[in-house]
Write a structure and sequence with these properties.
2 copies of one chain form a homodimer. Chain A is mainly α and 242 residues long. Chain A has 2 domains: 48 residues, Homeodomain-like (Arc Repressor Mutant, subunit A); 147 residues. In chain A, 68% of the residues lie in helices and 0% in strands. Chain A contains 10 helices and no strands. Chains A and B meet through α1, α4, α5, α6 and α8 of A and α1, α4, α5, α6 and α8 of B.
Amino acid sequence: MEKKPIEAVVKAFPAKQQRSEQTHEKLLQSGLDLLRDGVFDDISIAQIAARAGCAVGSFYLRFRNKEAFFKFLIESISETLEADLHANLTPESIKELNLAQTVRHCVDHYVETNRQYESIIRAAVQYSINDSDDWQPVRDNGLKLHDHYIDLILSKSRKSNQEEVRQQLIVGLQIISGHLVNSITHPINRLPLHDPNLSHWLFEVVMHCLKVKPPEPAMSQQKKGHLRTASPAKKTIIKRSK
Amino acid sequence: MEKKPIEAVVKAFPAKQQRSEQTHEKLLQSGLDLLRDGVFDDISIAQIAARAGCAVGSFYLRFRNKEAFFKFLIESISETLEADLHANLTPESIKELNLAQTVRHCVDHYVETNRQYESIIRAAVQYSINDSDDWQPVRDNGLKLHDHYIDLILSKSRKSNQEEVRQQLIVGLQIISGHLVNSITHPINRLPLHDPNLSHWLFEVVMHCLKVKPPEPAMSQQKKGHLRTASPAKKTIIKRSK
């Protein structure tokens, strides 16, 4: 039997690998598209495969089940997100912006990213709340974004106490992040995710956090001295109206 | 057969009804106590009954199942909350406070209420995210609190445009509400629910919202003109590192 030249084998293998990778990509893209319109639980593997133009068997060759697929989906988004950050949101890209403009730029980016991945964030929260760890990678993505924004904003701050500014930014971003997650997971009347003024308000929140001094415990106690704090609902007795 | 005097019947009945109501209360209190320490799904009806000092049968006499019990629990909390609001957080109780102090007072009350009902809010979010309506009553409670706070704060505002102030307060309360829900449903590093400075920051957010002008569309477009908005992660292509 004639031996195949080694080059032919080497050549043939990448082509096969490439096709396999394309199927992998198509499946992930299909999952992302389907998620955009619906709820993760309602999406079947048959649908994912059909939209990707491949057989259900091709799906199972690559992913153990829908949950494993979901993990790949999140991982792939993390990579896209990170590549995008380092390509488009760089010290160079904000060179001409002042502090406030940089904050606005970052908040705009954050809001847009949340809008774009709305369905995957919703699915991740849904999983996490049922005691799965699937929220963690999405949360890590959020923290990665926060760190990136903070570095850019800090580079524009003229305050000598950079650590204080960092703490203020962390709190500000955490608060607006809470609003964004809440607006994705629950129907809210005010400032929903697609409100055109959302960025404006969240920018204001972050900007203001840059001005907030940490509370001085002694002072705040003294100030509160004369306030009779209304006790919220009593702790031990549930009263029911008859 | 001798007829019982009507008074005796009337007297006997309330006593029995009272005992029955006491059992009802005890079961609800038991559920609330257990929820405070654990996850709703992990709590059994046997545990609820045992802690209330009654038989499992007594539970089923009153509630169809655990979900029905949960609905009663939320309803009962709504009533307690409402009674508390009207007893302790009244125009009279804030008579001597200025605008900022009133906002702080309301934010303190809101934070405390969220802390107190942490476990029930977590359970409600968990249910709602799995497509149940059980979040709605909890959400309604939140909106009821917001309305109450807004009325009190508006009474301290000297601005002529009360409607604008109302809109600003609605947004501010919505944003801090997002942070609170998020801090209850997910482990967060910054400003968690029991952080002693939580009220301070959330107060600052609401106060600042009172100063934010709604964005002027033309202006903000113009301002943004020279900013090259970084596109967040691309919409259609998922790139995976090899």
